[in-house]
């Protein structure tokens, strides 16, 4: 790699790092960072998008300019927007700045942009280089890209199990399989998500809080999917001061008479069937890029079957629960041949005390 290319890569990686500073707070927007250097190769400004409604990365970079950007170069990890939303289009700012060249890592998958921004930049006489550090940029905004391409939220399924693959005893008791360090880590994981999904049975059995314990503000949306609406009148999730809660129920099977148990602060939405894909699409429309499924075996299996799960996080504890009737993380996926199974890829392993944490992508 030439010295010139090394320099371009350095500045793009800087833009990607800046973008990552807002990765848990920008939804429904993507994570974007921008760097501006002058015609002599000196850094004159940078910026990143922190939260929807706040300046985009390019706008922040122009606001922070130390000197005139005319004749300079910009590095940005995602194509600048060209539509009016809560903030003005960034393409106009780039064009009016007098910047001569722009490196863009990846095209924006949003249909309102999707190459239109690049076209406008080229028509204005700005030299556009596309594809630098593409792999890193795709990874950073994979949830945003997935939502825009599929109209479903990017789903991550999490569970904790014993070394023999059990998530609880046959009587349902499961506290605690993973260690305290792993459980604390889950709270920090939750800060990466826009919503957390459980089933009605998990609510009835565990009465979870489903928050990041203050690591994210606002906390992720708490989602309960129920087929019956037979939910307890008292629950941690009914405290809407801590986090917002929504109940999504299957109108074909639920007893709507139970709705009078639900506090007024809890949002309620009905869907036509028990297909988890409907939940994923509802959350995507609400601007949720990335959602965490912390549900039981039946809902987890249904979510996998409907392609709502893109990654899994499993905590594996060095404990043996035993028993043919003990609880498994998944129910029957109805495979009859080994060629039908789901293989995991891009696996990452870590030790959390004595527990193993495995994170992998699903290969459907």
TrEMBL record:
<dbReference type="InterPro" id="IPR004794">
    <property type="entry name" value="Eubact_RibD"/>
</dbReference>
<keyword id="KW-0862">Zinc</keyword>
<feature type="binding site">
    <location>
        <position position="160"/>
    </location>
    <ligand>
        <name>NADP(+)</name>
    </ligand>
</feature>
<feature type="binding site">
    <location>
        <position position="90"/>
    </location>
    <ligand>
        <name>Zn(2+)</name>
    </ligand>
</feature>
<feature type="binding site">
    <location>
        <position position="81"/>
    </location>
    <ligand>
        <name>Zn(2+)</name>
    </ligand>
</feature>
<comment type="similarity">
    <text>In the C-terminal section; belongs to the HTP reductase family.</text>
</comment>
<dbReference type="GO" id="GO:0009231">
    <property type="term" value="P:riboflavin biosynthetic process"/>
</dbReference>
<comment type="similarity">
    <text>In the N-terminal section; belongs to the cytidine and deoxycytidylate deaminase family.</text>
</comment>
<keyword id="KW-0521">NADP</keyword>
<dbReference type="GO" id="GO:0050661">
    <property type="term" value="F:NADP binding"/>
</dbReference>
<dbReference type="GO" id="GO:0046872">
    <property type="term" value="F:metal ion binding"/>
</dbReference>
<feature type="binding site">
    <location>
        <position position="294"/>
    </location>
    <ligand>
        <name>substrate</name>
    </ligand>
</feature>
<dbReference type="InterPro" id="IPR024072">
    <property type="entry name" value="DHFR-like_dom_sf"/>
</dbReference>
<feature type="active site" description="Proton donor">
    <location>
        <position position="58"/>
    </location>
</feature>
<feature type="binding site">
    <location>
        <position position="213"/>
    </location>
    <ligand>
        <name>substrate</name>
    </ligand>
</feature>
<keyword id="KW-0511">Multifunctional enzyme</keyword>
<comment type="function">
    <text>Converts 2,5-diamino-6-(ribosylamino)-4(3h)-pyrimidinone 5'-phosphate into 5-amino-6-(ribosylamino)-2,4(1h,3h)-pyrimidinedione 5'-phosphate.</text>
</comment>
<feature type="binding site">
    <location>
        <position position="202"/>
    </location>
    <ligand>
        <name>NADP(+)</name>
    </ligand>
</feature>
<comment type="pathway">
    <text>Cofactor biosynthesis; riboflavin biosynthesis; 5-amino-6-(D-ribitylamino)uracil from GTP: step 2/4.</text>
</comment>
<keyword id="KW-0378">Hydrolase</keyword>
<dbReference type="Pfam" id="PF00383">
    <property type="entry name" value="dCMP_cyt_deam_1"/>
</dbReference>
<keyword id="KW-0686">Riboflavin biosynthesis</keyword>
<feature type="binding site">
    <location>
        <position position="56"/>
    </location>
    <ligand>
        <name>Zn(2+)</name>
    </ligand>
</feature>
<feature type="domain" description="CMP/dCMP-type deaminase">
    <location>
        <begin position="6"/>
        <end position="129"/>
    </location>
</feature>
<feature type="binding site">
    <location>
        <position position="190"/>
    </location>
    <ligand>
        <name>substrate</name>
    </ligand>
</feature>
<keyword id="KW-0560">Oxidoreductase</keyword>
<feature type="binding site">
    <location>
        <position position="176"/>
    </location>
    <ligand>
        <name>NADP(+)</name>
    </ligand>
</feature>
<feature type="binding site">
    <location>
        <position position="206"/>
    </location>
    <ligand>
        <name>substrate</name>
    </ligand>
</feature>
<feature type="binding site">
    <location>
        <position position="210"/>
    </location>
    <ligand>
        <name>substrate</name>
    </ligand>
</feature>
<dbReference type="InterPro" id="IPR011549">
    <property type="entry name" value="RibD_C"/>
</dbReference>
<dbReference type="InterPro" id="IPR002734">
    <property type="entry name" value="RibDG_C"/>
</dbReference>
<dbReference type="InterPro" id="IPR016193">
    <property type="entry name" value="Cytidine_deaminase-like"/>
</dbReference>
<dbReference type="GO" id="GO:0008703">
    <property type="term" value="F:5-amino-6-(5-phosphoribosylamino)uracil reductase activity"/>
</dbReference>
<dbReference type="Pfam" id="PF01872">
    <property type="entry name" value="RibD_C"/>
</dbReference>
<feature type="binding site">
    <location>
        <position position="174"/>
    </location>
    <ligand>
        <name>substrate</name>
    </ligand>
</feature>
<feature type="binding site">
    <location>
        <begin position="296"/>
        <end position="302"/>
    </location>
    <ligand>
        <name>NADP(+)</name>
    </ligand>
</feature>
<dbReference type="InterPro" id="IPR050765">
    <property type="entry name" value="Riboflavin_Biosynth_HTPR"/>
</dbReference>
<dbReference type="InterPro" id="IPR002125">
    <property type="entry name" value="CMP_dCMP_dom"/>
</dbReference>
<dbReference type="GO" id="GO:0008835">
    <property type="term" value="F:diaminohydroxyphosphoribosylaminopyrimidine deaminase activity"/>
</dbReference>
<comment type="pathway">
    <text>Cofactor biosynthesis; riboflavin biosynthesis; 5-amino-6-(D-ribitylamino)uracil from GTP: step 3/4.</text>
</comment>
<protein>
    <recommendedName>
        <fullName>Riboflavin biosynthesis protein RibD</fullName>
        <ecNumber>3.5.4.26</ecNumber>
        <ecNumber>1.1.1.193</ecNumber>
    </recommendedName>
</protein>
<keyword id="KW-0479">Metal-binding</keyword>
